[in-house]
Amino acid sequence: DEHGDxxxxxxxxxxxxxxxxxxxxxDCEAAGYMWMEDNHEGHGDxxxxxxxxxxxxxxxxxxxxxDCEAAGxxxxxxxxxxxxxDMTPEEAMSGFDTNNDSNLSWDExxxxxxxxxxxxxxxHGDxxHDENETDGDHDHxxxxxxxxxxxxxYMSEMLMTMFNESxxxxxxxxxxxxxxxxxxxxxxxxxxxxxxxxxxxxxxAFDEDGDSALxxxxxxxxxxxxxxxxxxxxxxxxxxxxxxxxxxxxxQMMFNMSDTNGDGSxxxxxVEMMFEMMGEEDDHHEEGVAFIGLHVEEEGxxxxxxxxxxxxxxxxxxxxxxxxxxxxxxxxHSxHGDxxxxxxxxxxxxxxxxxxHTWSMQKVDGDYADPTMWLVLIPxxxxxxxxxxxxxxxxxxxxxxxxxxVEDGESMASIAAEGSCFELHVxxxxxxxxxxxxxxxxxxxxxxxxxxxxxxxxxxxxxDSTGADIEPAAQEGAGAHDHGHGDEEIAFDPxxxxxxxAFAAQVEVVYTTLSTAFPEGADTFRENADEYKAQLMxxxxxFSSALGDAGTCTTDTVAANHNAYAYISQxxxxxxxxxxxxxxEGEPSPDTVAEVLEGVEEDGIxxxxxxxxxxxGALDSLxxxxxxxxxxxxxxxxxxxxxxxxxxxxSGEDYLSLMGKNLANLQIGLGC
Length: 672
What we know:
Helices cover 32% and strands 13% of the residues. By secondary structure, the protein is α/β, with parallel strands linked by helices. The protein has 3 domains: 39-192, no CATH class; 332-477, no CATH class; 498-669, Rossmann fold (3-Layer(aba) Sandwich). The strands form 6 sheets. The protein has a 6-stranded mixed sheet with strand order 10-12-9-14-7-16. Strand 17, helix 15 (566-572) and strand 18 form a beta-alpha-beta unit. Helix 3 packs across helix 6 (176-192). The longest helix is centred in the C-terminal third of the chain and has 26 residues, at 522-547.
């Protein structure tokens, strides 16, 4: 044996088990088993071969793909990564022809295919076909999912067809010459990357109801969710139960993401797209799809730092009124009860001076943010921010009582004095509009299931009868309580770098981008990134020690001019009572001043923080109103540097030094 005994495996042809205790061909055959060569060593240093698909001959005179194809032949890459990449027909016949009749039967080939390099061929069939079916079936039931079994069936059918086509004399076995053609056909198949079944094949394998698509139940069965009853142990602890629930949730998320047309099922093209995203398992792609579960314990604005080239798909969990697994309940939208128990994402209050207004919802990037959205309208004669907050408490009851369905082009009419709930259904076009009957109404508080700007492409969501945009007198969005005025957009905190841990993640993104653009500097970039990340981690430790449980702070609540510090709040537990939406260069409104005064009285707030660019006189009125025996000079105004621009009051400062100043000022306001 020119390969040496160490390059083989001892195989039981009856049980299809390998016996590792026999390490030589002599010992293996003496025990009544079959010795099979590994044949993983290379046979030549060329990267490919030029193959004549008509004569099945190889042309070694052509050593490049260009020369080969110019001669009218097919270039086959040398590295096939599969069974036959370096195996000659002679070696295959010698290793697999167990009855030594100089013909390779299907059974002999099939056993070899499933035994040699089994890890690389989890997608190769284990069921024999028609006249070739024997008692040599591999029992993979316990280790293969239904999807893997379907892939095995597909591969078995493909190889059976190729085997029969190579058997030109119809003898039921392959001679050495026929085996050579068969191996070449396998290599050509692998070069063409046709080992992945089509979406039609996969759907057909699991489409139990015959509708040419996969429901979530059929999809779950395909992925093995309903077959995962391996009895690894007799007891299933709570952790195993949690893992099963997590896997089921992941399957639902994968299904929803793949259901691009939102019809509650996966057609053939959606199935193919899903496998493209995941990376085909038989190609061993390490990249694919990963899921991030976000458990929000505290209200605030958060960010996710992604490496360059990674895209994020947001999948809504517990979105009961869009359960892709079962759309039978979509005909009834009046009983929403707990479905809308999460409350509104957006609120706004508007002055009304027209008999009709138009609410718009538009497709953005080809899709609506959601096909339905409930909207609560409450008339008011005082369209102010305070009124908007005062009326919030009645929103849930109006939603729970039932929302009137309004289709595209229809009207929201007969709005009750105490308010009404409407459920807006988008149409099939790019734009959907709904008329609001506002005759005799001078103001309106509105509360929406989703932020209306999610549905804006090129038109404002609210207009009067002349087509003029109507802006809110005040609004808040997604729990951020940013009390905008006039044209101000709903603001979400972008200041992620104020959290040193988040900033360290961004450093890694910068490193990846720079290294990709300038690979010659990758080592220097890596060294600098690691050094700076170490400084950021040290800064985080300093903040945590000073502001955490081991610190000496007497309070955890301060005030700020607007919500620019959500990342500091989340990371270090500092609560900010904020004048949301306050222009740093403007004067605070009476309503926002009242909120801070309430915090001073109830929470013992002694300091309010402003950005480095805020004018000194912006909070004079507020300071005067906080003068008391405890605060003879009023509330202190301190600076927290956001570093959106270069420092205005110092030269030579950098992120680390300014964050040090931020910590010192926070310790003052928190009584540390």
